[in-house]
Amino acid sequence: xxxxxxLIFCSLVLGASGLLSFLGEAAxxxxxxxxxxxxxxxxxxxxxxxxxxxxxxxxxxxRGPGGAWAAKVISDGRENFQRFTDRLKFGDSGHGAAxxxxxxxxxxxxxxxxxxxxxxxxxxxxKY
Length: 128
Fold this sequence. Notes:
The chain is mostly helical. Helices cover 73% and strands 0% of the residues. The protein contains four helices and no strands. 27% of the residues are buried. Residues 91-128 are annotated as: Disordered. It comes from Equus asinus (Donkey). One of its GO terms (biological process) is acute-phase response.
């Protein structure tokens, strides 16, 4: 009976540490996404949108499964919200379904571990 109780206790502790690890990765991945968005706004560089999408997702996914999960949730939420507001015309983003699909392709590219510099436009300052 003591062995069974010990095994249950150990599995709960290990499960909790895994959950804490996942949540830490998700928090750091969220910060990576926020940093990429901030850098995109600061750079204000025409044609760099896809690069920042890929970079934010890449950086977040490098954190581990929690970071990849956070990047997917944030990316999907952003694109879905943009499409929703475009349909209601609350602030037409000026980007249609094709641009949303291209953003999602850049998001997936970065999350899959591929180099975000594939989308880097010529002339973007090295700071980014």
